[in-house]
Amino acid sequence: MIKAGIIGGSGYTGGELIRLLLNHPEVEIDFVYSTTKADQLIAHSHEDLLGSCDLKFVGGINSDVDVLFLCLGHGNSKKFLDVHEFSAKTKIIDLSNDFRLTPDKSYGGRTFEYGLPELQKQTIKNAQHIANPGCFATAIQLGLLPLAKEGLLKESIHINATTGSTGAGVVPSPTTHFSWRNDNLSWYKPFTHQHLGEINQSIVSLQNNQPDIFLLPQRGDFAKGIFVTSYMKFEKGLEETWNLFQDYYVMEPFTHVSTKEVHLKQVINTNHCFIHLHRHNDVLLITSIVDNLIKGASGQAVQNMNLLFGFTESDGLNLKGSYF
């Protein structure tokens, strides 16, 4: 049994992480740190945990925990580690974007490895600290990695990616307000989204060339999930391409290639990514879907923790979604 600490547990990703760890067979939550909610019951912030969790947020930390999860806003993980010390045994999993890109992976005497299990599982197993991938980056990369591995991403890639309102965090904003978001659709950060850095970095690690990627993120009028469509000119036939994807993911417990069209409800409240391939003339369409808070954040963090500590990769993640 290992002890876990959570920094920033009052947000959406923190809440999902607490739920997952409460039901993990190998983990005990040692503390959940919050500067704004110290001494308050966690179930008062995450109301679905009433009767399941009697822990309180704390204003102090235990520097000797086995694993530390940083569920902080982007830029704040570095600031937190600058002023808090942890033991040499403490493995850190950061859910922000502070350490995902290679120039930032070494910080304060620590080295953070990029934690996309389907890309570099063995590296994760041998790591001490992990930079958890972004939610868009996860969904998009899982749709592209099998082709990049074979050096087949030669043409420009066009991507539409629609995310739920929880992707914007727990603090309300004008574009997450119900009256604005409901029955609405809009784009943001066209072609400049910060997750492009991760995506390009991974593709370059697998193949020599870096194709142009045109990413159009969109705000959907739903709470959870990311629905990605990526399309490009592609020379190989559909059956051969499907076999490439099957071979790449055959040993992966959470990424699956479907012969039927996929839709977002299939993966909500699970750690799964579902992928579907469609060909129209010389264009390949790849659809990939995830729950942005689980496979796109906290579930993947637990998956990485399992790999770090030698647990079964799916421990604590055998989640059953709801079709309706």
TrEMBL record:
Pfam families reported for this sequence: Semialdhyde_dh, Semialdhyde_dhC_1
Catalytic residue positions: C135
Catalytic activity: N-acetyl-L-glutamate 5-semialdehyde + phosphate + NADP(+) = N-acetyl-L-glutamyl 5-phosphate + NADPH + H(+)
Keywords assigned by UniProt, alphabetized: Amino-acid biosynthesis, Arginine biosynthesis, Cytoplasm, NADP, Oxidoreductase
Gene Ontology BP annotations: L-arginine biosynthetic process
SMART domains: Semialdhyde_dh
Predominant localisation class: cytoplasm
Enzyme class name: oxidoreductase
Pathway: Amino-acid biosynthesis; L-arginine biosynthesis; N(2)-acetyl-L-ornithine from L-glutamate: step 3/4
EC annotation from Swiss-Prot or TrEMBL: 1.2.1.38
Protein localization: Cytoplasm
GO cellular component, one term: cytoplasm
Domain Semialdehyde dehydrogenase NAD-binding residues, every copy: 3-127
Keyword set includes Calcium: no
MF GO annotations: N-acetyl-gamma-glutamyl-phosphate reductase activity; NAD binding; NADP+ binding
Function: Catalyzes the NADPH-dependent reduction of N-acetyl-5-glutamyl phosphate to yield N-acetyl-L-glutamate 5-semialdehyde.
PANTHER family per the UniProt record, alphabetical: N-ACETYL-GAMMA-GLUTAMYL-PHOSPHATE REDUCTASE, CHLOROPLASTIC-RELATED (PTHR32338:SF10), N-ACETYL-GAMMA-GLUTAMYL-PHOSPHATE REDUCTASE, CHLOROPLASTIC-RELATED-RELATED (PTHR32338)
Annotated family: Belongs to the NAGSA dehydrogenase family. Type 1 subfamily.
Name of the molecule in the record: N-acetyl-gamma-glutamyl-phosphate reductase
Species per Swiss-Prot/TrEMBL record: Galbibacter marinus
